[in-house]
């Protein structure tokens, strides 16, 4: 048996087209474009690539992209002052500070300084709390993108056994909250779990967000399960996920590829969150 390939690239392209339509309507009614501010500190090459593609996607959707680049040795106070300026700027609907930050800057302090109602990354503790309690707020982009892909396969997730591999604040924990809100039975597997494979074998839904190349092989997968691979690992063999696609796709019912699966969804959801923010702020 060979799995259905979940085409995240095509899904994201359709989502971005819908967002562009929404942006044009917003612009006509509000007399301005939604604005997304992205802050890059330092020269990390991977972060620079992400920031460039976020800027281009923002402009392509008809939004205003506001980019700030600060040197790696910038004092934390300077970054916090910039965040305060962006919080106060009525033309800025979304603020994203690209992570990781240099070691001398505490990321949690910076995230907590962002206005929760402009926190389109959904990383602010207020938004994490809103997600956990079922209140409206911003949901982190990658897990929300994963949920959209899952729902394309399972319009009703209620009652399914879901395993999330990884417990990061950015993906694992919010993914588990989203699946719980959909009434899945949710297990989080992490580095101290005694028998990760046994948990994954029992799951109808597997979301792998652990950062270990090809950790999940076909013999871990329940036949017919849906597998979402968040991993983006650069290896000598090229870009690979946390799932061994060749073996897992022989067993799964549906699976995302790497690249072309979850990756394109993250930026599309960022644009969606920014448009939602703009609409809420004008309402
Ligand atoms: N670094 C890697 N992914 C992300 C993301 O989604 N948001 C931010 N702010 N930084 C990141």
Automatic annotation (TrEMBL):
GO biological process: L-histidine biosynthetic process; methionine biosynthetic process; purine nucleotide biosynthetic process; tetrahydrofolate interconversion
Oligomeric form and interacting partners: Homodimer.
Pathway(s) served: One-carbon metabolism; tetrahydrofolate interconversion
UniProt protein name: Bifunctional protein FolD
InterPro entries noted in UniProt: Aminoacid_DH-like_N_sf, NAD(P)-bd_dom_sf, THF_DH/CycHdrlase, THF_DH/CycHdrlase_cat_dom, THF_DH/CycHdrlase_CS, THF_DH/CycHdrlase_NAD-bd_dom
NCBIfam families: PRK10792.1 (NF008058), PRK14186.1 (NF010783), PRK14188.1 (NF010785)
Recorded GO CC terms: cytosol
CDD domains assigned to the protein according to its UniProt record, in alphabetical order: NAD_bind_m-THF_DH_Cyclohyd
Segments forming domain Tetrahydrofolate dehydrogenase/cyclohydrolase catalytic: 6-121
Residues reported to bind NADP(+): 166-168, 232
UniProt keyword annotations, A-Z: Amino-acid biosynthesis, Histidine biosynthesis, Hydrolase, Methionine biosynthesis, Multifunctional enzyme, NADP, One-carbon metabolism, Oxidoreductase, Purine biosynthesis
All residue ranges annotated as the Tetrahydrofolate dehydrogenase/cyclohydrolase NAD(P)-binding domain in the record: 140-280
Family statement drawn from the similarity comment of this UniProt entry: Belongs to the tetrahydrofolate dehydrogenase/cyclohydrolase family.
EC number: 1.5.1.5, 3.5.4.9
Reported function: Catalyzes the oxidation of 5,10-methylenetetrahydrofolate to 5,10-methenyltetrahydrofolate and then the hydrolysis of 5,10-methenyltetrahydrofolate to 10-formyltetrahydrofolate.
Catalytic reaction list: (6R)-5,10-methenyltetrahydrofolate + H2O = (6R)-10-formyltetrahydrofolate + H(+); (6R)-5,10-methylene-5,6,7,8-tetrahydrofolate + NADP(+) = (6R)-5,10-methenyltetrahydrofolate + NADPH
GO function terms (MF aspect): methenyltetrahydrofolate cyclohydrolase activity; methylenetetrahydrofolate dehydrogenase (NADP+) activity
């Amino acid at each position: 048996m060979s799995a259905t390939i979940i085409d995240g690239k095509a899904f994201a392209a359709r989502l971005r087209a819908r967002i562009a339509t929404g942006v044009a309507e917003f612009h006509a009614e509000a007399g301005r474009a939604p604005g997304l501010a992205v802050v890059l500190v330092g020269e990390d090459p991977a972060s620079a690539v992400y920031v460039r593609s976020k800027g281009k996607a923002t402009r392509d959707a008809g939004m205003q992209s506001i980019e700030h680049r600060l040197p790696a040795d910038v004092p934390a106070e300077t970054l916090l002052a910039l965040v305060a300026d962006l919080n106060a700027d009525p033309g800025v609907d979304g603020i994203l500070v690209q992570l990781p930050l240099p070691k001398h800057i505490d990321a949690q302090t910076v995230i907590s300084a962002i206005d929760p109602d402009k926190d389109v990354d959904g990383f602010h503790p207020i938004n994490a709390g809103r997600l956990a309690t079922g209140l409206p707020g911003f949901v982190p982009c990658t897990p929300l993108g994963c949920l959209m892909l899952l729902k394309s396969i399972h319009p009703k997730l209620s009652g399914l056994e879901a395993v999330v591999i990884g417990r990061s604040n950015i993906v694992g924990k919010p993914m588990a909250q989203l699946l719980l809100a959909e009434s899945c039975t949710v297990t989080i597997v992490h580095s101290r779990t005694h028998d990760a494979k046994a948990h994954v074998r029992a799951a109808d839904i597997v979301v792998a967000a652990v950062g270990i190349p090809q950790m999940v092989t076909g013999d871990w997968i329940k036949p017919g399960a849906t597998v979402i691979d968040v991993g983006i690992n650069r290896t000598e063999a090229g870009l690979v996920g946390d799932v061994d696609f060749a073996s897992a796709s022989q067993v799964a019912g549906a699976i995302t590829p790497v690249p072309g699966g979850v990756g394109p969804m993250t930026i599309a959801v960022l644009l969606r969150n920014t448009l939602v923010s703009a609409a809420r702020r004008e309402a």
